[in-house]
Each structure stands twice: as structure tokens, then as C-alpha cells.
Specification:
- The complex is a heterodimer of chains A (about 300) and B (about 425).
- Chain A is an all-alpha fold and about 300 residues long.
- Chain A has a single domain, classed as Orthogonal Bundle (MetI-like fold), CATH 1.10.3720.
- Chain B has 2 domains: about 180 residues, 3-Layer(aba) Sandwich (D-Maltodextrin-Binding Protein, domain 2); about 200 residues, D-Maltodextrin-Binding Protein, domain 2 (3-Layer(aba) Sandwich).
- Helix content of chain B is about 45%, strand content about 10%.
- In chain B, β4 and β5 form a beta hairpin.
- In chain B, α11 packs across α19, α11 crosses α20 and α19 runs antiparallel to α20.
- The chains are: A mainly alpha (about 300), B alpha/beta (about 425).
- Chains A and B meet through α13 of A and α3, α4 and α19 of B.
């Protein structure tokens, strides 16, 4: 039997090792992310506007100003619409893809890797790709439509179509990771369960709703948290794809935050929008995690 | 007296040693201070092609260190660095942010150095267009040097105009009529008479150029006076384009690349643009046979008020610089005809007469003689403390005009003038 004497053999030390190892990562995350968030929230109580010298404390004045702006209200509504449709479509697609991947036996690792490709493509590349797909006369989709004798559709020039296109582009980005999360949930299930259920006469629909979904609920929750989080923060695809337009049709909160903070140089009001996005993310995440809590 | 009976050789050696000692004890010539200045360029293309090699040889005590910080973020990065006491000595910005940077006390008034330049080398100074300093002036001070600027002119399909039996339009009214004729008689399919970008991706550079050519004026604070004859004419122009289908219906979502592509790709007859884009156009279209350039025309009855707008990327001097003379030397070097010609030929025009009329420049830009007089008379698009918001309002106004082509232009003008005026509050 190996000796357990000395510090390294002490049970307390062995218990502490994982925490010690995780500490650098923790410091890194807290140091960068938490500092930025706390500093950003702090900024929202000051007037930091590059058109006006000084940075006095003004309490909730920035919140009052931002909440009264039509443009904020519009982007808030656009964000909710954008997130709702992105997450709904994203969940359906990622669940379908996860089921398909679960059944793939040959070269399954290759297929799983391939699934991640859209997630690994940069936002600007995604935007350019979707612009090529959906632009007016030279876009692939319109070429296809016109080839079939239909009129071209102004996908990026029409407010509703433009919103649909950015939802599609966002879904393209969020689905891969969500698929892998759900696939992990499916692979953790005991295959005997399906066999027994089938022998007992359960239909495929019953297996899906009575066995699979209840058992992978926690993974669905994590998947929804990821998709809603990524969607509320989505910015790098929308800006080059539509610039928030036409008009303000695709100006979601993250794009509005950029405009206020980095175009208008009203940093503290940009921080207000950041705080709103943060609160929305927390509320929605807590909601999903509670609703999709696992059952013992 | 043996001591005095030294040989002449001994005396000579002693004298030499004494001389050496005195030389060693003499105060040394003060060494020239070594100066390092840091410059931020907004694009790699603006960097002198020799990367200051000749400057360093001519000024061994000055070292220029440079970096490229994209124009889109240069003003904010600079202000952040300035607040932290780590600003570069110069920064290249979109000129419209001058007011904001002056308000933050981040720029140095270099008027005295500019005057010194003029007195020291009047011939060189006379070669420089006024816009080089007008564009960097704000409330009585000069804060930088505008080496390059890009006024907007107009490119058009000469072959199509000839096909329609039309001459080059001399006013906006004639231009609009030409657009109608081209659209109905010459163009087909997805070809449109006029090409311009939408408003979501860019500030309204193109709108401003049309507004100023129509005689549009600005308030003392730099806000366009839209509820004026010129402003209403501008709104009516956009309404007509939309109502009569003279531009691609998708133009509202276009970025600059889309509308330029429409002209260069043979899908548009007219496009308001700057010289650097004309250089791209002539790679694909035969200049003087297929396409031509013109100065944006005046509005009928407002010829005297018509101006060519200037939009630039000046080098601004930090208020924290410790070496303004060295900074000015570096800026003068960038503006040196032998240096600036390379950037002018390959990228953006320079505000120097000798460069713009040189054979080398004209070979690269054969259309420039048509634009020369207007280029020399550029008028600044004014800076404003709320410049990005001003841009948003103007883009919104254009969109409103194009989505509601039958709404009263005067009503639209009044609505958006109120929004603009609120920026001064």
C-alpha cells in the first residue's frame, strides 16, 4: 500500500486540490468578466458622455432617460421577438439534429464534429454568407425564386423579412452547440428503457414525450439557457448583415447598446442597456433552469 | 637651474599633455535630445510608403513610432488613452469628431505652429488647399492637419446618356429628368437610374453631399437647416426616386459595397461618389467612353449656394504631446509632395495643388481635371458635438421620405428639423 504520509497525502489537501486547480480559472473569469459587469453597472449611475466633460453621479437619471426613449422600447420589443423565435426554432432544430446524430453509428465522431462548423464560423463571415444568400437580385435564394418564375423578395429591404433573416442567421449559429448538449443527454440514457417501452407497446410519440423529454429535461434547460443567452447578446452577425435596419427593424438591444455606447459616445446610457440585457439573461436563465429542473 | 634646462622635446610633450587635459576639462557640446513621437494612422493606406525612412535620416533626433488604429474606433481609443495619460502624439480620425475631442480637452491648438510653417516656407504653404486647416478648425483653434479629404462628386454612364440622346445634366432638376428618361428608355430588368446606399450601415455621407450641392446650409453649431428650400428639395428628390422607381427597391438595405457594385456592375446609371471609388470603377469600365465624372450639380436658382462638401480624415495633435515641434515636422513630412503623392495615387486625394495636378496623379486619375476646381474649393461638412446622432436623424429622414413619397416634404422637413434642433439642447 502506498504511503499517505506528508502534506500531499493528507486527506484535507487531497480535497483541496480540485479547488486549487480551479482557482486560476476562477480568478481569470472573475477578474475580467465580473469586474467589467460590476464596473458597467457602476457606470450607469454616472453621466459619462463624451460630448459633455466631467462624470458626475446622477443616480437613476440614465435609466429614466433610456427607458423613455422610443428607440429603446422598440429594440426591447425586437429583442424579445428575436429571442423567442430564435430559441423556439433553435430548440426544434437542435432536438431533431440530436435525435438524428444519436442514431448515426458510422463515423459518428465525424458527424458530431461537422455539426459544430456553424458555431466556429465568425460572426462577420456568417453575416456575409447570409447577405449573399438573401440579397436582392444577386442573392442565391432570389436567383432560385426567379429561376422558378417567382418575383424576387426584398429579404433585407423589408422590415419583417429582414428580422426573419437575422433570426435564421442567429439560429444557424446557436443550433450546433445546443445539438451537442442535447445529444449528450440522449447518450446518457439507458437504451434498455426504449426497448422495454417498445415491448410494452409504447408508440414513438409516447416514448418521446413520456421517456426521452422528461429524462433529458436538465439538458433541455441548459440548451435553452445557452440559446437565449447567445440570442440576447447577438450583435456580431446583425451589425454587418443589416446594420440594425432597414430602419430599426433588426435593432435588438445588443445593437442598440453598441449604437448608444460606441456611436453616440454616451457610455453610461450604453451601460444602462447592458444592465437591462444582463437582467433579462438572468431572469430567463433562472426561469429555464427552474422549469427544466431534473427529477430524482 | 637644471629644471629650466629641459629639452625642447620635453617641453613639447608637456604642452601637448596640458592641451589634452584642458580639452578634457572643457564643457562638452550638448547632445541633441532624442525624441520619440507616436502616431496613429486610421488606415494602413495612409502610412507613408517609406515608413518614415527619409524622415529618420533627415531628423536623426526624432523617432516616429506608428500604429494603425481603424478610423471607426480611433477617436474613442484615443480619448480613453488620453484619459489614462497614454495618448499618442497624433491620431487620425473622422473629422466630424473634432468637436467632441475638443470638448474633452484632448487636442492641442496648433495655430501658432501653422503660422510658423506659413512664415517659414510661404511657397510650400501656398501649395496647400485651405481645407487642410479649415476642416480641423473649431471655435477659433486649429487642431490638426487634414492631409487627405474625400469630397463626393458624381459618376455616370456616359454611353447610356448618349444612347438616350442626353447631355450631362447641369442642375438637379435636369439630372432628375435624365434619370426618368434613362429608366424608361434605356434601362431594363434590374437596372436602375440612380444608385445610393441605405442608412443602416453608414453615416449619410452621400446625403450630405447632395444637400450641400443643392445649396443646403448649416446652423452655427453645425446642424443642417433642413426646413429650408434646399432641405425640402432634397426630401422631394428622395421621394421622387422612390415614387417613380428610379432606384433599386432594395437600396434601403444596401451598404456602400452594394451601391458601388450596382454602378460598376452595370446596374445603375448615376452614383454619387468620391475619387478613390472612381479609381476602382475605371478598372471595370472604360473611362470616357462607358462612364464619366461630374461635379454634383446645383439646384436651379441656387447656383451661388452650391458647394462641394469635404469629408476628411485629419491628423489631430494630442494636447498631451511634449514635442509639438517634432510632431509638426512629422506632419509636414507626411504632407511632403514626394511622400503624399504615393498615398494620393493609390488611395485618397491629397490637399496639395502640385500633387493633384502632377503627371503621376493624372495618369492614375485621368478624370481629375474635371473635378480640379471644385476640389480646390471644398467646404467642410461641419463637426458637431452630437455628430453620430445627427447622422442617425438624417438617415431616418431619408428613410421616411422614401417610405412615404406622397407625404408633404415640408412636413417631413419640419419633423426632422425639430429632432435635429433638440441635439443642441
Amino acid at each position: 500500500m502506498a504511503s499517505t504520509t506528508g502534506l500531499t497525502g493528507h486527506p484535507g489537501f487531497r480535497k483541496a486540490v480540485p479547488y486549487l486547480l480551479i482557482t486560476p480559472a476562477l480568478i481569470f473569469v472573475v477578474g475580467i468578466l465580473a469586474y467589467s459587469v460590476v464596473y458597467g453597472i457602476g457606470m450607469s449611475f454616472f453621466r459619462i458622455d463624451l460630448a459633455i466633460p466631467g462624470r458626475p453621479f446622477i443616480g437613476l437619471e440614465n435609466y429614466r432617460v433610456v427607458f423613455a426613449e422610443d428607440r429603446f422600447i422598440n429594440s426591447f420589443g425586437r429583442s424579445l421577438t428575436f429571442v423567442f423565435f430564435s430559441v423556439t426554432l433553435g430548440l426544434l432544430l437542435s432536438f431533431g439534429f440530436a435525435q438524428a446524430l444519436y442514431r448515426v453509428k458510422k463515423a459518428s465522431a465525424g458527424f458530431r464534429g461537422f455539426t459544430l462548423v456553424p458555431y466556429l464560423v465568425s460572426g462577420i463571415a456568417t453575416a456575409i454568407m447570409f447577405r449573399f444568400l438573401f440579397s436582392g437580385s444577386v442573392g442565391f435564394v432570389n436567383q432560385l425564386l426567379m429561376g422558378m418564375g417567382a418575383d424576387r423578395i426584398l429579404f433585407l429591404g423589408n422590415p419583417n423579412w429582414a428580422l426573419a433573416v437575422v433570426i435564421l442567421a442567429n439560429t444557424w449559429f446557436i443550433v450546433p452547440f445546443s445539438t451537442l448538449v442535447l445529444l449528450a443527454g440522449l447518450q446518457a440514457l439507458d437504451p434498455d428503457l426504449f426497448e422495454v417501452a417498445t415491448v410494452e407497446g409504447a408508440s414513438k410519440v409516447t416514448v418521446l414525450f413520456r421517456i426521452i423529454i422528461p429524462l433529458i429535461k436538465p439538458m433541455i434547460g441548459i440548451s435553452l439557457v445557452w440559446m437565449s443567452f447567445a440570442s440576447f447578446n447577438m450583435f456580431d452577425v446583425i451589425l454587418p448583415l443589416t446594420g440594425g435596419g432597414p430602419g430599426r427593424a433588426t435593432e435588438v438591444l445588443a445593437v442598440y447598446m453598441y449604437r448608444v455606447g460606441f456611436d453616440f459616445l454616451r457610455y453610461s446610457q450604453g451601460a444602462v442597456v447592458m444592465t437591462v440585457i444582463l437582467v433579462l439573461n438572468i431572469v430567463v436563465s433562472v426561469f429555464f433552469l427552474r422549469v427544466f429542473r431534473g427529477e430524482d | 637651474m637644471t629644471k629650466l634646462s629641459k629639452s625642447p622635446l620635453t617641453l613639447l610633450v608637456a604642452a601637448a599633455l596640458l592641451a589634452l587635459l584642458l580639452a578634457a576639462c572643457a564643457p562638452a557640446e550638448p547632445e541633441e535630445e532624442q525624441i520619440t513621437i507616436e502616431m496613429w494612422f486610421g488606415r494602413q493606406e495612409f502610412v507613408p510608403h517609406d515608413e518614415f525612412e527619409r524622415f529618420h535620416a533627415e531628423n536623426p533626433n526624432i523617432r516616429v513610432e506608428w500604429d494603425v488604429i481603424p478610423l471607426e474606433q480611433a477617436h474613442t481609443d484615443f480619448l480613453r488613452n488620453h484619459a489614462a495619460g497614454a495618448a499618442p502624439d497624433t491620431v487620425q480620425i473622422f473629422h466630424e469628431f473634432t468637436a467632441t475631442m475638443v470638448a474633452q480637452g484632448a487636442l492641442l491648438d496648433i495655430s501658432e505652429y501653422v503660422q510658423a510653417w506659413q512664415q517659414e516656407d510661404p511657397e510650400d504653404f501656398a501649395d496647400i488647399y485651405d481645407i487642410a486647416f479649415e476642416l480641423t478648425s473649431y471655435e477659433g483653434g486649429i487642431y490638426g492637419v487634414n492631409v487627405h479629404s474625400g469630397p463626393f462628386f458624381m459618376g455616370y454612364r456616359k454611353d447610356w446618356l448618349e444612347q438616350a440622346g442626353l447631355d450631362e445634366p447641369q442642375t438637379w432638376e435636369e439630372l432628375l429628368e435624365a434619370l426618368r428618361v434613362l429608366q424608361s428608355d434605356v434601362l431594363s430588368g434590374d437596372q436602375y437610374a440612380f444608385s445610393q446606399p441605405g442608412g443602416a450601415h453608414h453615416p449619410p455621407f452621400w446625403l450630405n453631399s447632395i444637400y450641400m450641392s443643392m445649396g443646403g446650409q448649416f446652423s452655427d453649431t453645425g446642424l443642417p437647416i433642413i426646413d429650408s428650400e434646399a432641405g425640402i428639395a432634397l426630401i422631394e428628390f428622395y421621394q421622387t426616386l422612390a415614387r417613380e422607381g428610379l432606384q433599386d427597391p432594395e437600396a434601403a438595405s444596401w451598404a456602400s459595397g452594394d451601391f458601388r457594385g450596382a454602378f460598376i456592375g452595370g446596374r445603375a446609371a448615376f452614383f454619387p461618389e468620391a475619387i478613390n471609388v472612381f479609381a476602382v470603377a475605371q478598372r471595370d469600365l472604360d473611362y470616357a467612353t462607358e462612364w464619366e465624372v461630374m461635379v454634383q450639380p446645383p439646384r436651379e436658382g441656387a447656383e451661388a449656394e452650391s458647394r462641394v462638401n469635404a469629408f476628411g480624415w485629419p491628423f489631430m495633435v494630442s494636447s498631451d504631446t511634449e514635442h509639438p515641434e517634432a510632431v509638426m515636422a512629422a506632419l509636414r513630412y507626411i504632407f511632403d509632395p514626394e511622400i503624399v503623392i504615393d498615398v494620393a495615387k493609390d488611395y485618397q486625394p491629397a490637399n496639395r495643388a502640385s500633387v493633384m495636378t502632377s503627371d503621376a496623379y493624372l495618369e492614375a486619375h485621368p478624370y481629375f481635371p474635371i473635378l480640379e476646381d471644385s476640389f480646390a474649393e471644398q467646404v467642410p461638412y461641419p463637426t458637431h458635438l452630437r455628430s453620430p446622432e445627427r447622422s442617425d436623424i438624417l438617415n431616418d429622414m431619408k428613410r421616411e421620405a422614401q417610405e412615404n413619397p406622397d407625404r408633404s416634404a415640408a412636413e417631413i422637413a419640419a419633423e426632422y428639423q425639430a429632432q435635429l434642433d433638440a441635439l443642441d439642447g
